[in-house]
From TrEMBL, chain A:
<dbReference type="InterPro" id="IPR015943">
    <property type="entry name" value="WD40/YVTN_repeat-like_dom_sf"/>
</dbReference>
<dbReference type="Pfam" id="PF00400">
    <property type="entry name" value="WD40"/>
</dbReference>
<feature type="region of interest" description="Disordered">
    <location>
        <begin position="1"/>
        <end position="28"/>
    </location>
</feature>
<keyword id="KW-0853">WD repeat</keyword>
<keyword id="KW-0677">Repeat</keyword>
<feature type="region of interest" description="Disordered">
    <location>
        <begin position="515"/>
        <end position="550"/>
    </location>
</feature>
<dbReference type="InterPro" id="IPR036322">
    <property type="entry name" value="WD40_repeat_dom_sf"/>
</dbReference>
<dbReference type="InterPro" id="IPR001680">
    <property type="entry name" value="WD40_rpt"/>
</dbReference>
<dbReference type="InterPro" id="IPR051362">
    <property type="entry name" value="WD_repeat_creC_regulators"/>
</dbReference>
Automatic annotation (TrEMBL), chain B:
<keyword id="KW-0519">Myristate</keyword>
<dbReference type="GO" id="GO:0005634">
    <property type="term" value="C:nucleus"/>
</dbReference>
<feature type="domain" description="USP">
    <location>
        <begin position="23"/>
        <end position="363"/>
    </location>
</feature>
<dbReference type="InterPro" id="IPR028889">
    <property type="entry name" value="USP"/>
</dbReference>
<keyword id="KW-0378">Hydrolase</keyword>
<keyword id="KW-0539">Nucleus</keyword>
<dbReference type="Pfam" id="PF00443">
    <property type="entry name" value="UCH"/>
</dbReference>
<dbReference type="GO" id="GO:0004843">
    <property type="term" value="F:cysteine-type deubiquitinase activity"/>
</dbReference>
<comment type="function">
    <text>Recognizes and hydrolyzes the peptide bond at the C-terminal Gly of ubiquitin. Involved in the processing of poly-ubiquitin precursors as well as that of ubiquitinated proteins. Required for the correct development of pollen.</text>
</comment>
Length: 550, 369
């Protein structure tokens, strides 16, 4: 018994040091924020030599996928008859799947889905699947959280809650490189995962089915835009329409966006009319009830990212022409939008309440767009290169206010090609007036100077020109942290952590300050001491901005 | 010969721009540094047009005495008046003239493209200034304007104050930097202006041109061994110094300092850093006139892992198409291919093609791309 404990401990420590050993000198395994330390919990990547060709030509994106318990036709009551609330059950799954017990058996698996390398693994994972599964010994029937990411010509799936660095599944695409993907946890008929390729091809599949299959090919896929017959330019973004009953949209590098409906015939109707004016927004509908059902021509040059508002009412696009555009999805109308400072916009993301949109791009700025004002309300300065990923932290709640404010504070993050993760705080009532001078304050900058552009209200359905540098209030980051040695391509917030991903497919999972406790049972000792660090800077979070040394 | 040209012609098809010519340059043994820069300059349309205009206005003069200016004008004329739309041309006369004139470029060794560009532009300026002075040699060129007298401004060796001449080369490439030094004792700011034809920027790994420009204009403290002599205090004082762009040029040439002298090795080393450059750029370090937008139209690329060998190629934007020139070869490339020349995010990468000199042209105000 003592032996097993010590051996499992030594395994732990060795795995921790190997995590640290993978670090380049100068990269820290934690970063401090006003609310405490974020610590590097896991890293995810893929074994060297997995990729065959064209590595580097694609940029890794990561999608988080929460698989729910497998719905079984008559099993609904029986699953509840197990009498476990979801919270308890998830804790149980964690313990059974990724807990110490299973590790002592000599394998790792967080969600009950262990690598299917040998028979013993399967036995070990029974614990997780039997807790909810009526289907006996097949794997991946339970709930779980997975990371889906692309690298080269491969789609990789990792178990978020396992400490295993390597993916549990890789799906090879012989014809073209996957470029983007999306997951819908509430998808009705099983097909919940979308994959868009460089060739323009699009697949919808069931994630669970992929996990259960032992092969290296996509299984049970519905194939759209086969061989690029409707559009052969690269897929740049793909998204399920929220509450869209199986509808999804695919953005392409030629400025077009297509709408598909899962229920409709897969065979394509490529007969969309020629686009007369490349610079103008236009919508064309398919003549027959075939996929894709509609084409939206958005802009000249590539669409780089698309994002739906949480309620699905709006879709935002950013692209090569530097414009953010916001459309009403249902009536197919442009609502508002505007140009960034300069260069292409690369990424965008909505706040949960739909009031703000973040964009990032080639001007090194993080831009905050207000849907109420229909204009840019702040520029975040702090990246030393292009901003490649932005996201609001919807799980974050402001440190309990000091009595002064009802003001809503948003926390958001950005990553860039400068290899850095930046965190920002935005106070909703603060951004009405410019509240921070740009670092190193230019003498010509005055808070009083507001041009006519700034005051004017922007009519619906029009695009704003690029604002002038002196007109836009500046934000400074709360945290600057260099997370990788290579350029980053995206970030994600989960309840427990922040995920960063590099262009080359290296993912790091940074656990939140408060989450250490719940995870400590899971991942060993080490993390248990650092709980509930007091915010380093009490008071208004917004005023603790990072001071740039210039 | 011409195979590359006909391929390009085919690729462009009926989109071949009216009146435009695409010609590769023959290589005479390590003259790629020259070829790559010449392509970039040829597709710097205002420069090309003014050079050709100059040539046609000074036909007699050109026949009289050969200079780098006449050789360049001759070469550009030769290209633009070709019957064929594409092909290969030999810049032989120009290269011979260059070698005759400057021994640095005489050897067959690998040369620095930026050094060449710098030499060429300064040489053109000198020739134009001399001509202009010769033309109006009788009326004395006195009365130095008071405005620009607050600094030594390319004062001539003989001490005579020469009115700075605004040649068409200046009009294209010249900008003014202002060097502000604030004495930390008396707080007085001394501003000294200097002109530039290109900006040489220090680079960092995984950064952007925007960030390099910011660093270029970052405030620097002069202290310890490096104090500033304040005229007011009449002594060495600590001071703060920063460089800003007072007048942004029409054509902004940015040179990335990829060849760095490493003292321990007592030789130059190539920095393969990934430095991203946007296709549109605004300057963040101007005194005023911010928000002026530039558009990238040419990139001179250094290929190779070291400073003393390698190859130069260029990317050029012409009539909204990007073209790749490699001596006599050329092909059309997608705009998105420009990003393959940013550099390597990690050392020891197999990618050795790195953007070295960037050419941006200022867009007319109010124009949105």
């Amino acid at each position: 018994m003592i032996n097993t404990t010590s051996s499992s401990n030594s395994m732990m420590s060795s795995s921790v040091t190997s995590t640290n050993g993978a670090q380049s000198p100068g990269l820290k395994t934690y970063f401090k924020t006003p609310e405490g330390r974020y610590k590097l919990q896991y890293e995810k990547t893929y074994p060297a030599g997995l990729l065959h060709f064209a590595h580097g030509k694609t940029v890794t994106q990561v999608t988080l996928a929460h698989l729910k318990d497998k719905p079984t036709q008559t099993a609904q009551p029986s699953s509840s008859s197990l009498g476990v609330s979801s919270g308890v059950r998830s804790a149980a799954a964690r313990l059974l799947g990724g807990g110490n017990g299973s590790r002592a058996l000599g394998f790792v698996g967080g969600n009950g889905g262990s690598k299917s390398v040998s028979g013993t693994n399967r036995v070990g994972s029974l614990g997780a699947s039997s807790s909810n599964g009526l289907l006996g010994n097949s794997n991946f029937d339970g709930k779980g959280t997975y990371l889906i990411f692309n690298a080269g010509d491969v789609i990789l799936i990792s178990d978020l809650n396992s400490q295993d660095k390597d993916p549990i599944k890789s799906i090879h695409f012989s014809n073209s490189n996957p470029a983007c993907h999306a997951f819908d946890p509430d998808a009705k008929d099983g097909h919940d995962l979308l994959i868009g390729l460089n060739s323009g091809d699009v697949y919808s599949v069931s994630l669970r089915q992929q996990l259960q299959d032992v092969g290296k090919k996509l299984v049970g896929a519905q194939h759209y835009n086969k061989d690029g017959c409707v559009n052969n330019s690269r897929c740049t973004g793909i998204a399920w329409v929220p509450n869209g009953d199986g509808a999804f949209v695919v953005a392409h590098a030629d400025g077009n966006l297509y709408i598909y409906e899962k229920s409709k015939d897969g065979s394509a109707d490529p007969s969309f009319p020629v686009i007369k004016d490349q610079t103008q927004f236009s919508v064309a509908h398919a003549r027959y009830s075939k996929n894709p059902v509609a084409r939206w021509h958005i802009c000249q040059g590539s669409i780089n990212t698309i994002a739906f508002s949480t309620d699905g009412a709006y879709i935002a696009t950013v692209g090569r022409d530097g414009y953010l555009r916001v459309f009403n999805y249902n009536n197919e109308q442009l609502v508002c939008g505007g140009k960034g400072y300069y260069g292409a916009l690369l990424c965008c993301a909505w706040s949960m309440d739909g009031k703000y949109i973040l964009t990032g791009g080639e001007d090194d700025l993080v831009q905050v767009w207000s849907m109420e004002d229909r204009k840019v309300v702040a520029w975040g300065e702090g990246h030393n290169s292009w901003v490649s990923g932005v996201a609001f932290d919807s799980y974050w709640s402001a440190p309990t206010s000091d009595g002064t404010g009802e003001s809503i504070v948003y926390r958001f993050g950005s990553v860039g090609q400068d290899t850095q993760l930046l965190l920002w705080d935005l106070e909703a009532d603060e951004i009405v007036v410019p509240m921070r001078r740009p670092p190193g304050g230019s003498p010509t900058f005055s808070t009083a100077s507001q041009s006519s552009h700034w005051d004017s209200t922007c009519p619906v359905g029009t695009l704003q020109p690029a604002p002038s540098m002196r007109d836009v209030p500046k934000l400074s980051p709360v945290v600057i942290h260099r997370v990788h040695t290579e350029p980053l391509s995206g970030l994600n917030f989960t309840q427990e952590s922040v995920l960063t991903v590099s262009r080359e497919g290296h993912i790091k999972i940074w656990i939140r300050p408060g989450s250490a406790e719940s995870q400590s049972s899971n991942s060993g000792s080490l993390l248990s001491t650092s709980l509930k660090e007091k915010p380093l800077f009490p008071g208004k979070a917004g005023s603790t901005g990072y001071k740039q040394m210039t | 010969m011409g195979a590359a040209g006909s391929k390009l012609e085919k690729a462009l098809g009926d989109q071949f721009p009216e009146g435009e010519r695409y010609f590769g340059f023959e290589n005479f043994g390590n003259t790629c540094y020259c070829n790559s820069v010449l392509q970039a300059l040829y597709f710097c349309v205002p420069f090309r047009e003014q050079l050709i205009e100059y040539y046609s206005n000074n036909k007699n003069l050109a026949d009289a005495e050969e200079s780098l200016l006449t050789c360049l004008a001759d070469l550009f004329m030769q290209i633009s008046s070709q019957k064929k739309k594409t092909g290969v041309i030999s810049p032989k006369r120009f290269v011979q003239r260059l070698k005759k004139q400057n021994e640095i470029f005489r050897s067959y060794m690998h040369q620095d493209a930026h050094e060449f560009l710098n030499y060429l532009l300064n040489e053109l300026v000198d020739i134009l200034e001399k001509e202009s002075h010769a033309a109006k040699s009788d009326p004395e060129t006195s009365s130095p304007s008071g405005k620009i007298a607050n600094g030594p401004k390319s004062a001539h060796a003989n001490g005579a104050q020469k009115e700075p001449l605004d040649t068409w080369v200046h009009k294209n490439f010249q900008g003014i930097l202002t060097n502000e030094t604030r004495c930390l004792r008396c707080e007085i700011v001394t501003a000294r202006d200097e002109t530039f034809l290109d900006l040489s920027l220090d680079i960092e790994q995984n950064s952007s041109i925007t960030s390099c420009l910011k660093n270029f204009s970052a405030t620097e403290t002069l202290n310890a061994e490096d104090k500033f002599f304040c005229d007011k205090c009449c002594s060495l004082q600590e001071a703060q110094k920063r460089m800003k762009i007072k007048r942004p040029p029409h054509i902004l040439v940015i040179h990335l300092k990829r060849f760095k002298y490493i003292e321990q090795l007592s030789r130059h080393k190539k920095l393969s850093y990934r430095v991203v450059f946007p296709l549109e750029l605004k300057l963040n370090n101007t005194v005023e006139d911010a928000d002026a937008e530039y558009s990238l139209f040419a990139v001179v690329v250094h290929v190779g892992s070291g400073p003393n060998h390698g190859h130069y190629v260029s990317l050029v934007k012409s009539h909204n198409h990007w073209l790749f020139f490699d001596d006599e070869n050329m092909e059309m490339i997608d705009e998105s291919a420009v990003q393959t020349f940013f550099g390597s995010a990690q050392e020891f990468s197999s990618n050795t093609d790195h953007g070295y000199i960037l050419f941006y042209e200022r867009l007319a105000a109010g124009r949105t791309s």
